[in-house]
User: Fold this.
Amino acid sequence: MAIVQRKKMEEEAEIPTASMADIAFLLIIFFMTTTNFAREKGLKFLLPEKKDKPQELKIASKNLLKISINDRGEVFLNDQQIDPNRLEEEVKRRLEENKKLIILIRTHENAPYGMMIKAFDAVKAAGGKKVGLGVIKEEGS
Amino acid sequence: MRLKRKKEMKAQIPTASMSDIAFLLIIFFMTVTVFRKAQGLPVQLPFAKTTERILKQRDLAFVWIGRNGKVSVDDNIVPPERIAVIFRTKMADNPALIVDIKADQNVRYRYVYKVMEALREANALRVVFATRKGQ
Assistant:
């Protein structure tokens, strides 16, 4: 009996850590399955501030490039119709000629949104930084 | 003659640092996890070549514009005149808000324009037009 008791005394106090890893891995699996990485993609744009008085900016017409999209989704570059797929190179060429160029994309109310994005995308791809978005209201409304 | 007792060598894998590794991974996943809050409307996003990744996911708020012009914020269909009010409160909560406009590629531009005007009114000026990468 005496021997058994002495043996017991020698036991060390321990915290069982064997299952710690199991718990941790369980949590890992939970977070792995619920994580969705930054999948949001898009085109960034900064809207102009809204002021009580509409801002008036005087821009020399030679520094302004107008891209207009009509209600059927046809694209016009300074009043001349252009193939949307050729927009990028055309804008690029004009930007090279004039670095101060400001591009205004005017879209008709009834035009499909996709066309406006296409034009905006082309301008971005061409390296245009100063871009304005406008709307063409339907006549009589 | 005494025989020398061979020392018994037990094969062991050191598992003490296992939990440390595991917790490190947990912390990583905990910090990058963003729980999805709203599902929104079914939309066909337009394609764009210059599509960028939006990294500040925590600051994003979504506006969905369906192809018939319905606008959805936080899983509710909202009338256009309420958008400005909603985003003004959102801006008060988080001034670094970025509004992600998820509009269908076939929706008429006027609906998108209206939303943009409302966002300007709410002073939520940082926007993203959600697109898909491609031609």
